[in-house]
Amino acid sequence: MTVPDLAVWAWLLLAFSAFVVGVSKTAIPGVNTLSVAIFAAVLPARESTGTLLLLLIVADLFAIVAYRRDANWKALLRLAPAVLVGLLLGAVFLAFADDEWVSRVIGVILLAVVAFTLLRRRFAPAVAGAGSHRVAAAGYGTLGGFTTMVANAAGPVMSMYFLASRFAVKEFLGTAAWFFFLVNITKLPFSIGLGIITPAGLLIDAILVPLVVIGALLGRWWANRLDQRLFERLVIVFTIIGAVYLLF
């Protein structure tokens, strides 16, 4: 088992993505879509999903330590059945899809994620007043389970649901932290069985984990100091570029 022979620019992009993974969990939810695009562009699409998953779990640990007492467990239990359905649908897709199809689907998912993010900004007051109900839990839970299984890209999808549930800030962050930690742990057996977690991917993760830790720690420090509006606009632009690259 040897370290993958990647170009210097590829390693730099992966290192930046690992840092972003950490920041996304402790400072700016949703920014992780940029990492999804970069990983899928640098690595084989299927392998990128498994490699990124392990880094996300490391970052999840920091998030649940920070917000461990703030989760809404009723909302998490309400989502659980639909999320499991979405995970199974995603696993079936990965079992039959090749790298080209996975790459294109990740591209489509990323564009959809950008659309969700823009709609959330545009219609946030209306969404916040919609409340939470079983149909919303079934729809968002299924889509969230599928997108996270195929592309680790459920952040903006689930943010829409948590926003509609009228969570306070800490409750929002705590529920999201526990949601993604539990979902990502659930995905591990599927990912191992599908062969998308590889020895080469584990070596990449071992190299990149320190950058995830740095990103998570600095994210906590930066949370109240960043110009978040400008940063999120840049993330959307680069995510669209990454998605178009994957599609074409």
From TrEMBL:
InterPro entries: TM_pro_TauE-like, TSUP
Location of this chain's protein in the cell: Cell membrane
UniProt membrane topology term: Multi-pass membrane protein
Transmembrane segments: 50-68, 75-95, 101-119, 192-218, 230-247
Alphabetic keyword roster: Cell membrane, Membrane, Transmembrane, Transmembrane helix, Transport
Pfam families in the cross-refs: TauE (PF01925)
Family statement drawn from the similarity comment of this UniProt entry: Belongs to the 4-toluene sulfonate uptake permease (TSUP) (TC 2.A.102) family.
Name of the protein this chain belongs to: Probable membrane transporter protein
